[in-house]
């Protein structure tokens, strides 16, 4: 991560302590979600997550290759941000597929819409604990660089279980290791305090309690990749 990006992350995290934007949608999402929504609004205003760095792009492509996403698949992207991964997912599912990309930050949603993504992409402002789609809607759910930010991780996982098909797949991924992410969030502090990745035993328990089975978990210096499937 560049020094400029790190500085901006620290700046907006500290700024988030002093107040958050209150809107009707923020109230619907819950008071806990308001600070992190405001934090990512500030990130969006600074363009922090608009594009991948060259190194991040390489990792993102390698992670997507492991997901085996096929033309025609219906995906949900939880925490789409400015749409940098959304664009890549849309290319993989093709015009016959679907990507439902959502985020709690209105400014991130706005930046995602500004990409003028293809028609197979639907963009919405929504919470991971209240996804506005019917049951068993998706072949896969992708959480890219977002899972530590979910205020209520068990509730989010239960909601993922609801909207995933019985043969669906949940992918929780990050472009850095668990240790790196947790160290960064702890050092930045502010609204990111406590926004941490669980360790493997905690993940296994959390997934099992919310109806998932852990297929594999790879935690490497330049990526975190977890695959889980619904328990029949």
What does this 3D model show about the protein?
With 232 residues, the protein is α/β, with parallel strands linked by helices. It has one domain (52-183, 195-230): Vaccinia Virus protein VP39 (Rossmann fold), CATH 3.40.50.150. The protein contains nine helices and seven strands. The protein has helices spanning 3-15, 24-29, 33-46, 54-67, 84-93, 106-113, 153-163, 178-188, 200-209, and strands spanning 74-78, 98-103, 121-125, 138-144, 164-174, 212-220, 223-230. It has a seven-stranded mixed β-sheet, sandwiched between helices. It is globular and about 40 Å long. The termini are far apart. Mean pLDDT is 89; it is low at 2-31.
Whole-Å distance between the termini?
Answer: 40 Å
Specify the CATH architecture.
3-Layer(aba) Sandwich
Structural class based on helices, strands and sheet pairing: alpha/beta
H/E series: HHHHEHEHEEHEHHEE
On the 0 to 100 scale, the average pLDDT is: 89
CATH class: Alpha Beta
Rounded to an integer in angstroms, the radius of gyration calculated over CA atoms is: 16 Å
């Amino acid at each position: 991560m560049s020094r400029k990006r790190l500085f901006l992350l620290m700046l907006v995290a500290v700024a988030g302590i002093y107040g958050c934007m209150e809107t009707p949608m923020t109230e619907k999402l819950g008071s806990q979600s308001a600070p992190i929504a405001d934090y990512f609004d500030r990130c969006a205003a600074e363009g922090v997550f608009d594009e991948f760095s060259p190194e991040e792009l390489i990792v993102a492509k390698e992670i997507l290759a492991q997901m085996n996403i096929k033309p025609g698949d219906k995906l949900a992207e939880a925490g789409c941000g400015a749409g940098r991964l959304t664009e890549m997912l849309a290319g993989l599912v093709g015009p016959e597929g679907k990507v439902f990309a959502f985020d709690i930050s209105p400014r991130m949603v706005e930046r995602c819409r500004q990409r003028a993504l293809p028609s197979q992409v639907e963009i919405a402002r929504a919470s991971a604990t209240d996804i506005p789609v019917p049951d068993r809607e998706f072949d896969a759910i992708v959480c890219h660089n977002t899972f530590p930010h979910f205020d209520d991780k068990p509730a989010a996982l239960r909601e993922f279980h609801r909207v995933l098909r019985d043969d669906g797949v949940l992918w929780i991924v990050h472009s850095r290791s668990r240790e790196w992410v947790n160290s960064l969030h702890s050092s930045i502090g502010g609204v990111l305090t406590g926004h941490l990745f669980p360790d493997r035993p905690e993940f296994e328990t959390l997934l099992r309690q919310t109806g998932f089975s852990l297929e594999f978990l790879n935690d490497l210096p330049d990526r975190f990749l977890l695959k889980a499937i619904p328990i029949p």
